[in-house]
Fold:
Amino acid sequence: MSLEANKIAAAVLVGGMLTLSVGLVSNIIYGAPAGAGAEHAAEGGAEEGAATAAPAAATPDAAPVSSVPLIAAADPAAGEKIAGKCKTCHTFESGGPNRVGPNLWGVLGGHSAHKADFTYSDVVKNLNITWDYDHLDQFLTNPKAYAKGTKMSFAGLKKPEERAALIRWLRDQSDAPAPLPQ
Structure:
């Protein structure tokens, strides 16, 4: 009987080691999510949606490059192509329906919860900002870092040129387009 118990214990230990090894190898190959350990520790016992929504503080050497200076010269046609990534969850035409996310007609210059007929998460409601060029740029860089606890699953646009083109196109999706940044 003791030989059987040893075999069972060995099988459990080997299974555990294999599970840990697969996780470690996956992190080496694909990389662990940035800040994953710190985020888990910070969320410890917090209720979902209880976090205050504010732009994430970035370390100076990791601060993303702003796309705002590039917006005036950006190509709206390129921005429309990039918006294709968003069309699964959003519509852009005037009076268009909401999907998983709100219709984004008039988002630039609008309140953070700009659509009265859409149920926003508390995080987005509590941003209580106007979507200007700077806020959109920061949000589109990394939505989950900008509005911690947002339900939006989009990872963000890391390239400033892509964000500039998208924001330039979003500007035109409005009854009264905002002046281009200087």
Remarks:
- The radius of gyration is 22 Å.
- The chain is about 45% helix and 0% strand.
- Residues 22 and 28 are 10 Å apart (CA to CA).
